[in-house]
Amino acid sequence: MGLFGGTFDPVHQGHLTAAEKVKKAFAMKAVVFIPSAVPPHKEGDRVTRAADRLAMLQLAVTGTAGFSISDCEIHRPGPSYTIDTIRFFKENTPGDTRLYWIMGHDAFLEMLTWKAYREILAQIPLIVMHRSGIEPPSTPAAGGGRVEMFIVQELSSEYRLLEDDSSYVHPSLHPIHLFRDPLPEISATRIRKKVKTGKSIRNMVPGAVEAYILEKGLYR
Ligand code: ATP
What we know:
By secondary structure, this protein is of the alpha/beta class. It has helices spanning 13-25, 50-61, 72-75, 82-92, 105-108, 117-123, 146-155, 188-196, 207-216; strands at residues 2-6, 31-35, 67-69, 100-104, 126-129, 160-161, 167-169, 176-179. The structure holds adenosine-5'-triphosphate.
């Protein structure tokens, strides 16, 4: 089962394609989308209220086999920390279900700022998706292989890349799997900007999500 956390402000085709491809590649029965309450990294920015982000997710995933939504972060008081969510799922999922935490490489490269990030690495395997067109800030090294350098230089020098280049393994932490399939170059930031300037977001979000955004007057 893949756990896919995010702000989802709004959910878009980048998220949906990524979830579909990862689900297939890792033979998962399910992917759970987990919208954050107050995202710890986006505090101070304006984030759309949880009820709207949740409603858009519902419109986006309804009818897709194996996709579901958890509101566990929204109902937990205070900022949403990934470690708390991982603990919640580990406690509430049958022991024989393999859990993965799914994220884009931009989010992954910020991991040192996450609460108890080492504990996360000890709790759950990660799937880090390559996100095209994204130049994340504060990256530790320029040029190719930023994610790879980050893993061995910043997280732990004991990670070793498997021969097939697919995953980093560690003697005491869970593996970090790299998912390099091309994914749509879409971000929620770009969608919000387009709506604000009156441009179409067709093909960037499902039709029902586009209709919801327009009807509720979001991002204007
Ligand atoms: P924003 O532009 O507001 O920062 P976002 O488009 O990055 O939003 P989030 O909800 O913050 O969307 O992302 C949730 C997770 O999905 C993150 O791990 C992010 O890296 C990943 N993600 C978002 N868009 C894509 C994409 N197009 N391809 C792959 N991963 C993505």
